[in-house]
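USER: My hope is that you can spare some time for a protein that puzzles me. I am handing you a single protein, as its sequence and its fold in token form. Walk me, if you will, through where the backbone shape changes along the chain. The protein I mean follows directly.
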Amino acid sequence: MTTAINILKPHLAINVRDVEQSVEFYKKMFGIEPSKVRTGYAKFDVQSPALNFTLNQVPFGERGALSHLGIQVASTDDVASMRTSWEDRGLTPRDELQTSCCYALQDKAWVNDPDGNEWEVFVVLEDNLPETASKVGGDAVCCAPVSETVHIAALPDDVECACETAPPAEGKGACCETQAAKFGVEVEAGAGCCA
């Protein structure tokens, strides 16, 4: 006989360079105070979405294996509400609307924490889109934010865009607002992500 497990919430612990600076960011992002703060440590007991989120101050050089973090919501209105909340709390979100990412059509907004970890709030508008030329070297490149310290592999000749991980081809505009913001170029009229 199997006993049911009463799961309370997922736990996510991330390493940060400066816990005090990160606490200030996450207070704004989550809209709550930390439930516990100690030397080199802070915990946020987030209720919506339910999450035990901790910050651990650890010296490190470059980004680790973490790609990005996200909060999935039910509608584009929810994305807009979260974006407005972030903006009202002093964060600088960037929008990515009607984008094809992770084989789904999505609306999303992004913010970066002090260590370069990117958070998205997103809604899936249409799921299970067909695979397109969105892989480089066997690794999915869609929805993979990149810091300035990461070196980007060359794209195959048949891939014109890699969303957030590579700049657009020479002489071309960005395929989306996120690529435009990351690489300081204008969005090309009629362009679409990973097309």
